[in-house]
Amino acid sequence: MTLRYLIDTNVLSEPVKSRPSRRVVEAIRENEGELAICSIVWHELRFGVERLPSGKRRRAIEAYLDDAVATALPILPYDGRAAEWHARERARLSKRGTPPSAADGQIAAIAAVNGLIVVSANAHDFRGFRDLEVENWHTRR
Predict the structure, then answer these.
(1) Which of 70, 72, 91, 140 is 20 to 30 A off residue 63, Cα-Cα?
(2) Is the pLDDT of residue 1 over 90?
């Protein structure tokens, strides 16, 4: 299958929540083979785990990341093309008075240069970017 979606941290974290959204978990399953994450999301996930105390929950999340995420989803890099796209969009949005966060800008850039749709529960964080499609599977029907 062809990659179609770049999944944000808050969507990829859904299956390991104590009360996951059935809608989001089903959407992840339905789109298997079309999903990717990026190095920024991988960092956020690993950073989150590193901050957890040792224990059952941490081991469960580590297993999910190592066994389900890292083996099933490509991790796309923040490369030169993404950096150039990000710089242009960051400058444009800063001039408008709506500078994006660094992480959101990097995620948007990776999606844009790879022709992917960003999937995020915080879709509003990505709305100002040009030529970027964004979906929120939490509210998808």
Answers:
(1) 140
(2) no
